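New to this. Help decode both lines:
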Amino acid sequence: MAIWGGGAAAAALVLSLALQLAAMADAQETASIFPAMILFGDSSVDSGNNNYLPTAFKANYPPYGKDFIGHQPTGRFCNGKLTTDITADILGFKTYPPAYLSPQAKGKNLLFGANFGSAAAGYDDTTALINHAIPLSQQLEYYKEYRVQLSKVAGTKKAAAIIKDALYIVGFGTADFLQNYYVNPTLKKLYTTPDQYSTHLATFFSSFIKDLYGLGARRIGVVPLPPLGCFPETIALFRFPKHGCIHRINNDAQGFNNKINTTAITLQKQLLALKIVVFDIFKPLHHVITSPSDYVLQKPGKVAARQAKQGQLPYSVIQSL
């Protein structure tokens, strides 16, 4: 399972994400832009839900979590904080939305939101089902449960305000391609090209956003696909010799992202109170991987210099501005 959190990718994205998120907030809002964060997605947002599932896609063992708070694995698919964790920090949250299946998802913890993400889930429910993850449809059902629990904790009026003003993050697609389409001959017979499958996924995306909107969501940030062709997993499976990004797969990812962008524009026109932003993550991530010398290293010593020279991703980078 490829991961993009807690390291170079996260650091390169955070400033861009924060600026795009700020555009979703009302002009008069200052100190606290959003009262809560509510997350749906795959390993890019999963903060521990898969710990409670009979799935092979788990991150509850070392070295996961070695740079996170407490230096212990939490179920996050990275060594430290996820990009969504760092975004929460920048937005001023003092705690992170609890993984919904965890014991922490109760009481006042729910006031800050909830995380329904599950590694190996996708827009296509079959992706999660074959990987024993939480399907998109079930993540939505858990969100409905959360709304009921939130009302009990906060009261009906305050709960409604939290639901309306919360930041919703939606990030799927990686597993749909890497853990399903590319390795599933049956699916390839149904959708003979990645473009056809992308169109199929975009219909699920559209329906999901409409469902969220109908349940009170108004501010939604969408995380499209990163450069899948540069994932170590992808290179190991589909490239020989085993080095360099696979341009064909990166093109598939960009094609999917274009469909998500187009669909989001249509949804914005249809749902008048909706504020939806599709984050531009492909370009900054691709630039980190292909042009590491353009970044200022924050890891001291010769190891960082060696990593930069070899084109590897150091623990933390800040893009030169």
